[in-house]
Known about the structure:
The protein has helices at residues 4-18, 132-135; strands at residues 22-28, 47-55, 58-63, 68-72, 77-82, 97-103, 108-113, 121-125. The protein is mainly β.
Amino acid sequence: MPELPEVEALKDFLTDHLVGHEVVRVLPVAISVLKTYDPPLAAVEGREIAAVHRYGKFLDCETDGGPHFVTHLARAGWLHWKDRLPDGPPRPGKGPLALRVALETGAGFDLTEAGTQKRLAVYVVRDPQEVPGVARLGPDPPPVP
C-alpha cells in the first residue's frame, strides 16, 4: 500500500489541528459521500474531537463520548485544510466538494473528490468496527526500523 505513509501523515496532521476543538457544523454537499444514517451526520456537531486514529486507509475522528466520524478518501479523494473557511454554506454543484467540516475556531476542512467514480466515503458510527472496511482489517505490520 504505497499510500499508507500519506494517510499516517494526514492522521498526525489532523491530530495536531483537530484534537481539543469542537465541530460546529458538518455540511454534506454530495449525498453520495454518506454511507451511514444512524447516528445522523449532525451527531458530531457540538462535540469535541478527542483523538484521531488510522485503520488501514480509514481515518477516524473520535468525538468526546459520542460518535466517530470515519472517512476513506479512496483513489480520488482529498482533504483540504483551511485555517479560515469561507463564509456561508458551500454551494452544491458539479464541483469536487463533497463535505465540509467547520470548527469553533473558524478553521476546518473540505473533503473533495475528483473524477466520476464517487468512492469517497464518510461514516458516522458508534464504533469504528461498524464500518465494513475497518472490520475486515487485520493488524498493522510493525514499523520498519
